[in-house]
Amino acid sequence: MANALIIVDVQNDFCEGGSLAVAGGAGVAAGISRLLATEPDRWTHVVATKDYHVDPGAHFGDPPDFVESWPRHCVVGTSGSEFHPELDTARVEAIFHKGEHAAAYSGFEGHADDGECLADWLRRRDVDRVDVVGIATDHCVRATALDAAREGFATTVLLELTAAVAPATTDVALRAMEGAGVIMHGQPVIRAA
Prior knowledge:
CATH class: Alpha Beta
Distance between the termini: 42 Å
Number of domains: 1
Structural class: alpha/beta
Number of helices: 4
Shape: globular
Number of strands: 7
Largest sheet: 7 strands, parallel
CATH architecture: 3-Layer(aba) Sandwich
């Protein structure tokens, strides 16, 4: 069997200076790159997800409520949808786009360019264990980890390589992941409330 690293939404719009910036996002990008460089054999496979919006409807709010609706972000064709420059993507074998026409938080809702979903991609490569990193701990990382566990993968979140939006939603996310049997290491970066 094999293991995989899932890098969740380490995109310009979710890092400092982006339209929906999460404090510590650039540091998460750099930290993931350092880990991939120092432990090149730790994962058999490395994949990444991208928020990739064309017209996601009520997911973009004017004004946003920051619960169900958000400022415009990660719009296809914009620099905000690109990976952060501190993230070394040389090892990324496949990118799974999500949320073109609807809100999508989990990488398991996404698809590769050929239409294959993340769960099928991992199973075809005999992956049974995944580590999840990225942005944001309390939203897309949480959703991806919960779906990974639901899909039957032994799931670990490397919290020190995640950045969170807010303490309250992060507490809820950590409890949900623990309840689903997700293993967690470290502490996420969380900006002050």
